[in-house]
Amino acid sequence: MPATVRIKDLPEGERPRERLLAKGAQALATEELLAILLRTGTAGVSALDAARQMLTQFGSLDALSRARVEDLAAVRGVGRDKAVTLKAAFTLAQRLAREAAQATPLLQSPEQVADFLREDCRQYEVEHFQVLLLNTRRRLIRVEPVAVSQGTLDTVLVHPREVFKAAIAANAAAIILVHNHPSGDPTPSDADLRVTRDLVQAGQLLKIEVLDHVIIGRRTAERDKDYVSLRELGCWPAT
User: Where in the chain is the domain with CATH 3.40.140.10?
Assistant: First the structure.
């Protein structure tokens, strides 16, 4: 096994902190940015080596951001305190993305919806059902989480009462349904289609239009988009 190279033993121009100051954060590799957060390694492992080990073990930055503190801490060279620092950094990035999205909460397309909720959904290990409450100009009033009564890993079952109670209280003109598939495959299930049909029909009775149902998963080499729109798929119930 090659000897661990400590950051302080590197030439000054090759140390991540000095490189960031000289060239900007965008010039650094992911492992270097992680090493800056780790500061120093533990158990005889340098921060750079621990960062490389995390990326190798979890496979991607996306998976790393969703890892539990316990799993991060178990990586040799990380430990509990550094795992907490990493989790805090990933959560701040998530909140930054949400804040940026909220600056222009006009939601007129499935892509805008996916961009708005992607960072939230990335953290979920089970399915979450959310309703976007919109005004007459299709601007967001707020995001309302809806309790999932039962279901499998990638199937949500919700009651129309839970969905429309918040919409009525907020005087919403329309809603968009959103949920995630933790497996990463956003393909709708038969149950997803049934839930959509029931909610569209309930919305017609209440005069609150259901504009779309967006399912968020993850991108892969074979799948360019990490979401599907049931309306775009042609799965929308007849009105």
Answer: 104-229
The CATH homologous superfamily to which domain 7-98 belongs is 5' to 3' exonuclease, C-terminal subdomain (1.10.150.20)
Report how far residue 212's alpha carbon sits from residue 215's, in angstroms, rounded to the nearest whole number. 10
Provide the CATH number for the domain formed by 104-229 in this structure: 3.40.140.10
pLDDT tens digits, residue range 56-82? 999 888 889 889 999 999 998 898 999
Is the alpha carbon torsion for 15, 20, 22, 23 positive or negative? positive
Tell me the C-alpha distance between 167 and 184, whole Å: 28
- The pLDDT tens digits for 8-61 are 667 766 788 888 898 888 888 899 999 999 887 666 788 888 999 999 999 888
d(CA 119, CA 150): 24
**Would you call 137 exposed, middle or buried from its count of C-beta atoms within 10 A (0-12, 13-18, 19+)?**
exposed
